[in-house]
Design brief:
binds magnesium ion; binds adenosine-5'-triphosphate; 14 helices; alpha+beta; 8-stranded mixed sheet; about 40% helix; nucleotide-binding; 3-stranded antiparallel sheet; about 475 residues
Length: about 475
């Protein structure tokens, strides 16, 4: 590959909603429902910060909305290695909270254990999301770019879907690519719950609104395998670079994206004929292949890709080949749908259980369980059956260390100082404010700016305040 420039710097963040249940430790019913379990999980956070919406030392956001899906939004990342580490740090933060909550339950003599699930469908059939955020330039044709991405979002599930067991039209269980595909109702919309679009077009850039927009993609499955996260975000970043450099995908617009997204999910051979807007038809594999070829040509002509970006292109190609040939084992260490399918297939072959057997459902759920000591991922990773692109130490470190190259560095430093000195700090994505009635709020509208003397001054003011026992201290 012989281009010359790096990909344009782009802010990327991933928000994950987690499923939560409290499994009974006896034969009786669960000791608490999902709402109660979520509140038990967030209890120490609410005690400490008097809020269920806090920013962390990693620069990310921990959040419990109404309802029962605790959420972690990663800090702003502009390197794929940081995104992988921060995304995993979110799982670790949640798992630590669950450990603490389970210890409190045990102290109270409650026989039940809280489990956190990184999937997209709860036992009652309610869906919840994993959202990707990509900074895009306002000067580009956002609407057209957003529309242009729909065919990619419809078909990328054959690579980055998390895999799902669902009944077919005759009620028989079968394996499909995505949990989220059936939960999506529109291509583009500014409403998220009613319309369930693939891209949420609400204009909230968390940055200078004259220059930027935030592409808010809400159709993806949550990822367990780092390979899935890498390919999901890395392919989108490269596609956006291609489009922002004048690339065009409009000849691949689909006639009926909503119908297509369901058809793609349920055809494991990815050979279904999808109708294009111009009347031609194309299979999901061929459509993805076409995207990959254009992006690869763009990379070769213009870009000097990073090591992880090379791996994105490599995995993209191998993933398509695995689907086309039906030899999914080739990517079973890298892509969720293939990893889970291999696990379930081995189990059904060994035991003779069918896909609709409750034991198979439990095994599938264990793949998504991120609670310490419960889920399968750590074991699969240790055994080399799931590939780690970023080692566990780096992910652990990201729990308290924000990305170094974006404004998250400033936010993380300020949050850490406020926690250490027990000072009240108001934080959101674009500002920091010490609640002492003296310091002026610091506005951080440039997400690429990782060094800022105003934040240095704020940290110094915090040190001064922290020394003064009367000022700004929170009640113990
Ligand atoms: N300028 C930006 N461009 C792209 N992504 C950004 C930018 N600023 C922040 N982000 C990322 O966007 C995500 C915002 O998460 P958050 O959960 O607050 O989303 P939201 O869409 O604002 O809110 P909600 O979940 O309440 O609907 C984070 O992952 C963050 O890193
Ligand atoms: Mg969110």
């Amino acid at each position: 590959m012989s281009g010359s420039r790096p990909t344009a710097r782009r802010i990327i963040g991933i928000e994950t909603e987690y499923g939560i249940t409290c499994a009974s430790g006896t034969a009786g019913p669960p000791p608490m429902d999902a709402d109660q379990a979520a509140r038990a999980l967030f209890d120490p956070i609410i005690q400490r910060g008097r809020s269920s919406n806090v920013f962390t030392r990693s620069g990310g956001r921990l959040y419990l909305d109404v309802g029962s899906h605790p959420e972690y939004a990663t800090a702003e990342c502009d390197r794929l290695e940081d995104l992988l580490a921060q995304d995993r740090a979110g799982d670790l933060i949640m798992a630590d909270l669950a450990d603490q909550a389970n210890a409190r339950l045990e102290d109270r003599g409650v026989t039940g254990r809280i489990h956190l699930l990184k999937n997209n469908l709860d036992a009652e059939g309610n869906g919840f999301g994993c959202h990707e955020n990509y900074l895009v330039r306002r000067s580009g044709s956002f609407w057209q770019d957003a529309q242009t991405l729909v065919p990619h979002l419809v078909t990328r599930q054959i690579l980055v879907g998390a895999g799902h067991i669902a009944p077919d039209a005759r009620g028989r269980a079968r394996y499909c690519f995505s949990q989220r595909a059936d939960q999506t109702w529109e291509a583009l919309s500014a409403a998220t719950t009613r319309a369930r679009p693939m891209i949420n077009t609400r204009d909230e850039p968390h940055a200078d609104a004259e220059r930027y927009r935030r592409m808010h993609i809400i159709v993806g499955d949550s990822s367990i395998a780092q390979g899935s996260t890498l390919l999901k975000a890395g392919a989108m970043d490269l596609l956006l670079d291609y489009l922002e450099s004048g690339g065009d995908l409009s000849d691949l617009a689909l006639a009926e994206p909503m119908r297509a997204i369901r058809e793609v999910s349920s055809d494991l051979r990815a050979a279904v004929a999808l109708e294009l807007a111009d009347g031609r038809t194309i299979t999901p594999v061929d459509l993805q292949h076409e995207h990959l070829e254009r992006v690869t040509a763009h990379v070769q002509a213009e870009l000097d890709p990073t090591d992880l970006q090379r791996q994105v292109l490599d995995l993209w190609g191998r993933g398509l080949e695995a689907v086309r040939s039906g030899r999914y084992e080739a990517v079973a260490a890298e892509l969720d749908w293939a990893a889970k399918l291999q696990l379930l297939t081995r189990y059904t072959q060994r035991t003779g259980a069918r896909l609709d057997d409750p034991r198979v459902a439990r095994l599938a759920l264990a793949y998504h369980d991120v609670t310490s000591g419960e889920g399968l991922r750590p074991r699969l990773e240790r055994a080399g059956l799931l590939r780690r692109y970023i080692d566990q130490e780096a992910c652990r470190a990201a729990v308290t260390r924000p990305p170094a190259t974006t404004r998250a560095r400033l936010r993380g430093a300020a949050v850490a100082r406020a926690e250490d000195l027990r000072l009240d700090l108001s934080v959101d994505w674009v500002s920091l404010r010490l609640d002492d009635g003296v310091c002026r709020p610091v506005s951080l509208t440039d997400p690429f700016r990782a060094v800022d003397e105003r934040v240095d001054a704020l940290l110094a003011a915090m040190d001064d305040r922290g020394l003064d026992p009367g000022a700004g201290m929170r009640p113990a």
